């Protein structure tokens, strides 16, 4: 097997020595790993030599929280808070099971758009309605294997009736609707853990280690305690990630008060032993200082999904308080129905800007270095992959992105890392590599026929839209109660208020 030598590029290594500061380096790749990083490295017989002049090389980006299955809903909804949006995007009464062929197509579409934007690792929390089977999971894993991307892939599970995971709504809905929801089948903890053991055996470490299975209890309010604890224990057995949605909205903060006798959701998870260094909390907005201390103490990571949180009106993650406590942060796009994009570079810029308006003390604003860390090594750590990806270091897997700095986004050239976060949108990417294999070159996928995938996807869209329209009509019956619940929860006091800092009211006001 021949190696690859990149000569004379500006490199953001994200290692302990140079971090996010670009340095001039040569990079040798052999056997899918970085084998030498230095200056004036000699070419070896058979090497592919890539001229890095005018190029910026970064670690591949890690999307630390997303839902590929939402790709079918991209651009469909607007002006809905999370709980009302979930009513439609996660149909309560289920739907027609999605065929493995459609699952494969939507996964490939999602991965294509992701990788063209420099994402080399996906933490993909896959949910199927009315439930995921092993053939659907295999379709996701197979799609990622064929396109060449790295991915943690889950079996997302909700094992409580949905109306019992939210405050108030069961009392406000017609009895027949409540009965229909509660009649929907849900997995027991043992059934989910057995399913996950099979998934680990079939998919964990597939594609030469690129594809891994992870556990994904939807959220503490949506899953039974035995499932949450069992998932945490099983993750330790396989050294895998366990991925949980926690305190995304104020309604969820109210839910904790209602379900757990005044405990926050973080306090409850910690109390039952469902937090560890392999755990990632998606969102983590409505947290108290005590919650943050618990998260830091357990080594749990948090995935920050700035664009999705803004679109759903969920709130603003306490960026500086997490950093002050030493909590590891990753960045995620969330799903394409709540953020409408799988492009992580958009999240990077949003995260860099958003936290400059949350307080007047400029020393506590988000920095470019922090954002790049979250997009690379922080996301890798949250995915339990920081030993192999997330930085450009000898011995790590050769996942990288190469940008042409002769483009308008990098002119006039000042600080390349600032251009990368604030000026570049992915249009300057000329090469993406995963495991040392070029997966994107000059804007085109190299391992699959992307035109054929798009054509097949277009052919399926009329049937997909027909089913979506039908489900929207079914779920319209729940909307009045869900809207009322949102309004009720919005006015209730909780232990924390991320909008104004006031612990008793929740109002939108300028910062």
TrEMBL record:
Q: Which residues form the Amidohydrolase-related domain?
A: 56-437
- Record GO terms (molecular function): guanine deaminase activity
EC? 3.5.4.3
Q: List the keywords (alphabetical).
A: Hydrolase
EC class name: hydrolase
| Keyword Cell membrane on entry | no
Record flagged with keyword Hydrolase: yes
Q: What Pfam families would the database entry show?
A: Amidohydro_1 (PF01979)
State what protein this is by name: Guanine deaminase
- The organism is Microbacterium marinum
Classification from the root reads:
Bacteria, Bacillati, Actinomycetota, Actinomycetes, Micrococcales
């Amino acid at each position: 097997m021949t190696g690859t030598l990149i000569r004379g590029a500006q490199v953001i290594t994200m290692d302990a020595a140079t971090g996010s500061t670009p340095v001039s380096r040569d990079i040798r790749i052999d056997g899918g790993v970085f084998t030498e990083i230095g200056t004036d490295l000699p070419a070896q017989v058979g090497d592919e030599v890539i001229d890095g002049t005018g190029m910026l090389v970064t670690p591949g980006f890690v999307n630390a929280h997303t839902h590929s299955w939402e790709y079918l809903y991209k651009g469909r909804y607007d002006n809905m808070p999370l709980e009302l949006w979930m009513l439609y995007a996660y149909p309560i009464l289920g739907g027609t099971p999605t065929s493995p062929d459609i699952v494969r197509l939507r996964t490939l579409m999602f991965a294509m758009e992701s990788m063209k934007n420099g994402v080399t690792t996906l933490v993909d929390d896959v949910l199927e309605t009315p439930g995921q089977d092993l053939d659907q999971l295999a379709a996701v894993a197979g799609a990622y294997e064929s396109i060449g991307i790295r991915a943690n892939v889950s079996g997302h599970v909700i094992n409580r009736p949905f109306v019992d995971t939210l405050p108030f709504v069961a009392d406000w809905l017609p009895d027949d609707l409540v009965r229909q929801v509660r009649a929907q089948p849900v997995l027991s903890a043992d059934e989910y853990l057995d399913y996950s053991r099979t998934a680990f055996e079939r998919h964990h470490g597939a594609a030469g280690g690129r594809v891994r299975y992870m556990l994904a209890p939807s959220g503490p309010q949506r899953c039974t305690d035995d499932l949450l604890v069992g998932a945490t224990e099983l993750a330790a057995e396989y050294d895998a990630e366990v991925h949980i949605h926690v305190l995304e909205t104020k309604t969820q903060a109210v839910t904790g008060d209602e379900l757990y006798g005044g405990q926050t959701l973080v306090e409850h998870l910690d109390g039952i032993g469902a937090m560890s260094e392999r755990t990632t909390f998606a969102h983590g907005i409505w947290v108290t200082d005590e919650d943050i201390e618990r998260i830091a103490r357990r080594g749990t990571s948090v995935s920050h999904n700035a664009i999705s949180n803004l679109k759903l009106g969920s709130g603003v993650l306490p960026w500086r308080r997490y950093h002050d406590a030493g909590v590891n942060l990753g960045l995620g796009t969330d799903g394409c129905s709540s953020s409408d994009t799988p492009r992580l570079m958009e999240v990077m810029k949003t995260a860099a800007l958003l936290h400059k308006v949350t307080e007047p003390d400029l020393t506590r604003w988000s920095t470019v270095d922090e954002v790049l860390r979250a997009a690379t090594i922080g996301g890798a750590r949250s995915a339990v992959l920081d030993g192999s990806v997330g930085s450009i270091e000898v011995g790590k897997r050769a996942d990288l992105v190469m940008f042409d700095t002769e483009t308008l986004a990098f002119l006039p050239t000042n600080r390349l890392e600032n251009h990368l976060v604030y000026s570049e949108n992915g249009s300057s990417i000329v090469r993406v590599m995963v495991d040392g294999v070029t997966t994107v070159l000059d804007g085109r996928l190299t391992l699959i026929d992307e035109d054929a995938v798009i054509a097949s996807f277009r052919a399926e869209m009329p049937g997909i839209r027909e089913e979506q329209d039908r489900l929207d009509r079914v779920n319209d019956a729940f909307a009045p109660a869900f809207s009322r619940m949102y309004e009720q929860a919005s006015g209730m006091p909780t232990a924390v208020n991320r909008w104004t800092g006031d612990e008793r009211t929740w109002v939108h006001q300028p910062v």
